[in-house]
Structure formats: structure tokens, C-alpha cells
Amino acid sequence: MGLLSAPAAVDKREYWGFSLYDWANSGYVTTVGTVLFAPYLTSVAETAACGYSGTTDHPCRTNLDVLGLGISPGSLAFYVVTVATLVSALFLPVVGAIADRMARKKLLMCAFAWAGALAACCMVFVGGGRWGLGALLLFIGNLCLGSSLVVYDSILIDIAPPDQRDAVSSRAWAFGYAGGFILLLVNLAVVTAHDALGMSQGTAVRLSLLSAGLWWGLFTFFPFLRLRDRPPTSVVQVRSGSLVRQSFGQLAATLKHLRSYPMTMLFLIAYLFFNDGIQTVISVSSTYGEKQLGFETQVLIATILMVQFVAFFGAIVFGRVAARYGAHRTITGGLVIWMLIVIAGFLLPAHQIVPFLAMGAAIGIVLGGTQALSRSAFSQLIPKGREAEYFSLYQAGERGTSWLGTLVFGLVHQITGSYRPAIVALGLFFVIGLVLLVRVDMRRGITEAGNAQPSIV
User: Fold this and answer.
1) Which residues are bridge partners to 64 per DSSP?
2) How far, in whole angstroms, is CA 53 from its chain's centroid?
3) How far apart are the C-alpha atoms of 216 and 118, rounded to whole Å?
4) What's the mean per-residue pLDDT of the chain?
5) 3-state DSSP helix/strand/coil percent for the chain, to nearest 5?
6) b/e sequence 29-55, b meaning 16+ C-beta within 10 Å
7) Closest by alpha carbon to 141, among 25, 22, 303?
8) CA pair distance 119, 122, nearest whole angstrom
9) DSSP 122
10) Rounded to two decimals, what is the model's pTM?
């Protein structure tokens, strides 16, 4: 069996459709969310505030006026992610509740994907002093990404039986890293050769942002054509009314009875903490590398490319380790490695590329595995009929929608004027998440949710 072949008992057509959506949205996650947009938006905001883009030696100290609040240009992108996720806390659960009652889940997923892709394409117009447009488009893109992933994650339960979910989730994540790697490689060539192509670096970055939107939108047609619609099953009965009204009623019932599933709730809380740490490290890495360590954009993109390449194999390896030792123990080991990575990030010397690359390789090893296995482990703990709704709560801490981590990072930077204490502050999220995760009894949680027990958890 090949590394990315469909596991046994999983329909090949749907497996490819499911996996290719990870390929599609990873173009946005890597090019926009991870590498290019936060540093670019920071530079646009700094130019608007100070007349120049700040550097390590000459930082921009003038704040932006945002609704009467003084906002540091270096913290703007992280505050936008924070606001997007706070809005998501209200919006995504309703999306999940609607998805659980729809017979056309894939259409809902793809509609959000295409809306987010359009926002990413419009980032080509962010330049000059238009940092406000950039902030708005980042908000829309992240909100649409989270909404599409709520539905996408719930489809894992539809297409894969319990014993195959770790494998399907890990391989789909590997597809995502492969897609992100290929698009980012093309963008690296464009940004690096911008002079030879007769354009400024800013223009090259904006065209790369456009390519991410096109990639996301076009490849979303594959899951739209290959995934199968299924009628809702075991939907909780609530008072009659419109679909939205019923969905709010189902959400209220789920939140009321969540305490009946203590292991599910404990896993969700643990995930909220440790994934906030993971997502914040991912989203701030390029800004940290450029503004704190003094690396050029080309070095940052090359490093992320290496991370994507390593993460492709890391996701596969973690899936195979989980098949032997269980997802719970494998995730726990991954969090220990994450804590060591944060400490190493604080100690990294400026302008020294070898230690920076070493840390990037370590991130690649654990990045995809911890996230993919968290998704499949959580799927085992969800009561039937509430899959998308529970995944909407799960998505509050998913990639690109972290709020507490980015808030802490932005606040610590604004207070200290340095990204080093901000990066080390993220270690607290991994510590709390690990302490909570080791208290989760997976077997008990699966039984409480009324699901079949897999052979290994």
C-alpha cells in the first residue's frame, strides 16, 4: 500500500475528495496565513503609521488609530485573528448545527471555501496605506476557512469507520502539506526573482496572495464532485421553525447536555489550549523570523517549505505510530516536543540560519501529526447527530482561528516591544493542554458518546 493510498474499508472516490480539500485550503493556510500576509500587512501598517517599514534596529513605535484605540502595527495581524475567532465562537456553532441538519453538507463546505478564496484573491489590492482592507480580508478569509473546516471535519465520520480514522485523517493532512509545499515553492520563485520578472517585492507578494485564493477556489471543485451527500442521522429533535431557528435550538441543547460527556468536554478544553499554542507558533513564525531574528522573506519562505516537506512525512509517521500505540499517547508525546520547541525559539540567536532551520525541522516532525490525530481522536468522542456541531466547537481552537494565543502574543509584544518574551509565553498553552489531556480516559469517553470502540485508542 502506498503512503497516500485509501485505507481499507474507505471508498476511494470519497477518500480522494476528502483529502483534496486539505490540499486546496492549505494553499491559503501556508502562503497567506503562515508566511506572507502577516509580515506584509505589518509592513503596510508600519508604512502608514511611520512612513517606513520597521526593522530590528529601527522599529516603528507609532500606533495606528483603530476605532479610537492605539494599536501597534506589529500586533495588528494578531489582533485581527483574535477578533475573527471571537466572532467564530458565536458563528461557527450555528454553522455546525445547520450542517448536521442538511442533506448537502458538501455544498455548504464548498460555499464557505469559495467565499474565503474570493477574499484571498482580493488581497492583491492591499497596498499603499490600505491596511484596513487587508485586516478586513484577513478577517473574512479566516472566518470562511473555519466555517468550511467545521463541515469538512464532520465528513471524516461519514467516510471512515472508527479503526480507519487515524489513517484517513493523517493522510489527508499529508495531502495538505504536499499542496502547500508546491504552491509555496512557486511563490518562493516569484518573490525571489521579482527583479528579474520586472516587479517589486510587494507586487510579487500580492500576486502570491492571489495565487493562494485561486488555488483554494479551484481545487475545492474536487471534493464538490467526489464527496457524497448523506441524509442527517440521529438529529436531536427541537421545536419546529426555520432551519436557523432549529439549529439554535439544537446548539442550546448540546451546550446544556455537554456536561453529560465529561471526557469529550475535557478533551475539547485540552485541545483548545494546546492547539492555541500550535496555531500561534505557526501564525507568528514568519513575523518572528523577520522582525526579531532579521531574516529576509526568501529565507522565511524557504524555511516554511522545509517545514512543509518534513511535515508531510511527519503526518504519515505519526499516523503509523498511533496505529501501534494509540492516538492519545502519540499526541501526548508530541506536546512534550512542542514545549521544547518553544524554549528553543526563545533562545535562537539573530541572523543564525542553521539553528532556525533546525527548529523548523522539529516543528515539521510534530506539526501535522498532533493536529491530524487530535481530529480523529475527537471524532470518537462525539455523540451521533451532532458531528458538525461538536466540530464547530473544536474549530474554535483550530488552525488560523486561535484567539487566546495570538492575544497573549500581541499583548506581550506591545508591552515589552520584543517578540522573544512573547514566543516563550506560548509554552504555558502546551503545559496546560498536556496536563488536561493526560486526564482524558478515551475508552470511557467513547462509551459515554455511544460509539463503537476502536481496537486501539
Assistant:
1) 71
2) 28
3) 9
4) 87
5) 75, 0, 25
6) bbbbbbbbbbbbbbbbbbbbbbeebbe
7) 25
8) 5
9) H
10) 0.82
Q: Which residues of the chain have pLDDT under 50?
A: 1, 399-401
C-alpha cell at 308: 512543509
Select from 250, 251, 288, 284 the least CA-distant residue to 402.
284
What would you report as the CA-atom Rg of the chain, rounded to the nearest whole angstrom? 21
Domains and CATH numbers, the chain: 12-448 (1.20.1250.20)
CA 115 – CA 362 distance, rounded (Å)? 34
89 three-state secondary structure: helix
Q: What is the reported pLDDT for 254? A: 65
Closest CA to 85 of 395, 402, 409, 405: 402
**433-443 pLDDT tens trace:** 999 999 999 99
Environment class of residue 452 by beta-carbon count within 10 Å: exposed (0-12), middle (13-18) or buried (19+)? exposed
The Cα 174–Cα 343 span in angstroms is 27
Kindly state the cell numbers that stand for 317. Answer: 509517521
pLDDT (tens digit, 9 = 90+) per residue, 312-335?
999 999 999 999 999 999 999 999
**Per the structure block, which three cell numbers stand in for 56?**
530590528
What integer pLDDT is reported at residue 85 of this predicted model?
75
Distance spanning both ends of the chain, measured CA to CA: 23
